[in-house]
Write a structure and sequence with these properties.
- It comes from Bradyrhizobium campsiandrae.
- Involved in beta-(1-->2)glucan export. Transmembrane domains (TMD) form a pore in the inner membrane and the ATP-binding domain (NBD) is responsible for energy generation.
- The chain crosses the membrane at residues 20-39, 51-76, 96-118, 130-153, 173-192, 222-245, 257-284, 296-313.
- By secondary structure, the chain is an alpha/beta fold.
- It has 24 helices and 10 strands.
- The strands form 2 sheets. A 6-stranded mixed beta sheet has the order 6-7-8-3-9-10, sandwiched between helices.
- A hairpin with a 2-residue loop joins strand 9 (560-565) and strand 10 (568-574).
- The radius of gyration is 28 Å and the shape is elongated.
- The chain starts with 19 loop residues before the first helix and ends with a helix.
- The chain binds adenosine-5'-triphosphate (ATP).
- Adenosine-5'-triphosphate binds next to strand 2 and helix 16.
Length: 592
Amino acid sequence: MSAPSDNMPIPAPAIRSKPLVIRHLPYFIAAAILVVLAANMRFDGYVHNILLQATTFAIAVFGLSVVLGLCGQINLAQAAFFGLGAYAVGLGTNDLHLSFWLCLVGGCVISLLAGAFLGMSTLRLGGHYLAMVTISFQQIVTLVMINAIWLTHGPDGVSNIKRPDLFQTSQSYLAFCVAMLAIVGYLVWHLADTKLGRAMRAVRDNELAAGVNGIDVFRTKIYAFALCALLGGLAGGLFAGGFAYVSPDQFSFAESIVFLTMSLLGGVASPIGSAIGTGLLILIPEWLRFLKSVPGLYLAIYGLFVILIIRFMPDGIWGFVADAFTRWRAKVKAVPAAAALQLKPASIGGDIVLEVTGLSKHFGGLKAVDGVDIAVKRGGVHALIGPNGSGKTTTLNVLSGLYEATAGKIVLDGTDITHMPPHQRTASGLGRTFQNIRLFRSMTALENVEIGAERPGNTMVGKGDDALTERAMEALTFVGLGSRANELISSFSYGHQRLIEIARALASNPTLLLLDEPAAGLNSTEKLELHELLKRIAAQGLTILIIDHDMTLVSEAAQHITVLNFGRRIADGESMAVLRHPDVVSAYLGSE
Ligand SMILES: Nc1ncnc2c1ncn2[C@@H]1O[C@H](COP(=O)(O)OP(=O)(O)OP(=O)(O)O)[C@@H](O)[C@H]1O
């Protein structure tokens, strides 16, 4: 955390980036060329089918790059959503004689609703449980397709599926699918840089930190899951129109695994990776077709190829390239200058910013926090100290909503936040850092701090991405790391990561900042710098509640101290008096 030098107020020009359409012009030109080629090049039936399959499958795999790549949630039922879209178009156009467009939209809506419903009922689980539930959903959809013959035609499948009048020829339909691929690919690619996309990435990297930075974790996961299902349904509808026939075996669990392998192979975090993975997994079997005369050889080489890629490129082919690109860009990309950070904490209530009364948190029989009262005065530094295991971090976790209080009341700036979830407390003005640093590890320092700046209710950020970047740059510059804004978190030392976490909280312009052992793991120089930083924060009128074991830091920084021991408050008052209090001395040194 050595001598940050760029924390002086700089009159900075406003950050102005080029409009999106101009920045992404090369993409649109490349997409237009592909659509024109698809519409005009003559392919034989075999090549045409491969291209149509690759195009529609890639759209379904884009869905996985949203739910798994961006949001970190597993979905082993993408073939089921693909099947719902395909059967909606198949049955709608063939049995009900409805228009293709109506059926395509209907299929997307059915998939979206099924995805949202599945998400709402399971996404609080996560991990293995989520995987098991999606597998069960996949099996149910397959069973219905096979056995509900009155509805789905059973194992015979649905034939004579219609296409839209506008795209009756195979060639024009392929061009239409390529255009859809380009549009969906663009939206998914761009999603990562939107507020929702950043929230998904934050949830994937660290759910707890996402919650205390104002992100509604559960809702974000549901959006990701529903979006994934929607793209599965869209892809299935296009597939059905293209091949004019669908049957249950095309949408089995094995196909869901194929979709997953495609996304992992290419690089699940990006639609470019999804497109690469889809192309490879469809083309490799075709390239190895000549080996099929030797039983088993084809499958062995195919499997070896997949294992080698995943072994040497764990983030997939595109993940490998993108990582190198991000590191290169951090070196060459100019860092915009930033103005001095302004902190204007809200001030609705009276002199007391945080009023905690009778707060308790019990874990079974253990009273980790037991009837604690704390009153934090506006504009000061208040320390919460106590020996190891006395209940300090538990108190902070209850204050920020990570634990539900067993009893007691918490009022922040006049608002009762006792029963609010973490993201709503953050929206009400609570900012915090963690004892064990919780940053979003796949992001740059700037992206981490942008998520803090995006706090709902943050009046210090104007509209648009440029304003967000400006605010984040101001906060990073304030802690002395503005010049390294574009570097990935992994390239920062431990001390600097602590500073980025503080910058993330400051960017949100909180009413009250909770700091959980910010000096832990720092050397003496870094501690001095931290102390200077605390002084500069306090000078702007921000109220701080700090936990730390470093008594020099605490006694110099805090005007007021509350002491806990065995979960109970044993002293509270002006710093020097509290530190001399016999009960405090005895709690720390042990009584004779
Ligand atoms: N999730 C949990 N489940 C059960 N017990 C817990 C949990 N979290 C904390 N505890 C217990 O609550 C007590 C208080 O822990 P806490 O981490 O709040 O103490 P602390 O004062 O922050 O300690 P330290 O200074 O070492 O961080 C400890 O006995 C701890 O083991």
